[in-house]
Amino acid sequence: MTRDTGAAERLLADLPPAPAVWCSGLRKRYRRQVAVDDVSFTVGRGEIVGLLGPNGAGKTTVIKILLGLIHPNAGDVLLLGRPARDPRARARVGYLPELFRYQPWLTAAEVLALHVRLAGVTVPVAERRECLDMVGLADRADDRVGGFSKGMQQRLGLAVALVARPELVVLDEPTSALDPIGRADVRDLLLSLRSRRVAVLLNSHLIGEVERVCDRVVILDRGRVAASGTLAELLGQRELRLRLDGVGADAEARLAATGRLTRAGDEFIVELPADQDAAPGDGAVPKLVADLVALGVRVHAVEPGRISLERRLLNILRADSGEDRR
Ligand SMILES: Nc1ncnc2c1ncn2[C@@H]1O[C@H](COP(=O)(O)OP(=O)(O)OP(=O)(O)O)[C@@H](O)[C@H]1O
């Protein structure tokens, strides 16, 4: 019996670690409102995954289900290989809520000490101070939180999420109260977490921020996963930005035949189809320019580039709402 248990443990130890987050078929309904509908995704160890979507898409509800703060009507969650409600899993998860508020009568150092005790772990004082240092609050450790600005409270929230040496950190709008330098600091912090194989699930409306740090994104729309993938998969599509004048109907048709066309004044953006991704300049661009010139167009600028996450997100959400109308 003992030998069997030992063998089973060795077998488990040899397996790769379970993903930081695994969820499948999550569904949550509030009266007639379906807030989350059949949501499934994973966050691997050391991976930074961005949760994106418009207001009311269900991002915070998903996060609360993952953390066991809300009961889903259907679906399963495993955090670090254990059920979400298992205290052993929750002790290894750091969380910064969207609406944060800490005990105003405690000092920053005392708030951290409290959270370490709640997590049931031991973290030496020096390491707790380091954590405050990491979020730029080293010199405010002994000040009462009641006197902190909103941005300083959010920084403290980040320290709370990180202090108990989590293996997974869930951050709901972590930079909403931060100035640009604070945002850059958080970016560095996220990258340092990744280098230590800590997984991060990040909910942010700041798409540029998500684009800079995330390995993968999950896009929610009206409770459902509208798209998900690595940034390379989602942004693989390339585009051409052209500044043109004298564009007649024939030239516009030529542009539209090259890819999805949008126009703002004299600027034209052509999104190249996926099969031209690898080498958009290989023959296709000179040929397009030659054809445009032959059609009487004056070409002022041609700039190949990659579609931004913001525009990709808007395209996905527009396509999603178009499908629903049909
Ligand atoms: N406690 C609740 N009672 C009733 N409806 C709720 C509750 N919480 C959320 N909802 C509804 O569920 C849907 C998803 O809300 P949720 O807060 O998850 O969205 P979100 O994507 O986080 O939005 P935002 O970007 O605005 O923070 C919304 O329609 C919201 O009104």
Automatic annotation (TrEMBL):
One Gene Ontology MF term: ATP hydrolysis activity
Keywords: ATP-binding, Nucleotide-binding, Transport
Superkingdom of origin organism: Bacteria
Listed SMART domains: AAA
InterPro entries cross-referenced by the UniProt entry: AAA+_ATPase, ABC_transporter-like_ATP-bd, ABC_transporter-like_CS, P-loop_NTPase
Pfam family of the protein (one): ABC_tran
Stretches assigned to the ABC transporter domain: 21-247
Annotated PANTHER family: ABC TRANSPORTER RELATED, ABC TRANSPORTER, ATP-BINDING PROTEIN
This protein's name: ABC transporter ATP-binding protein
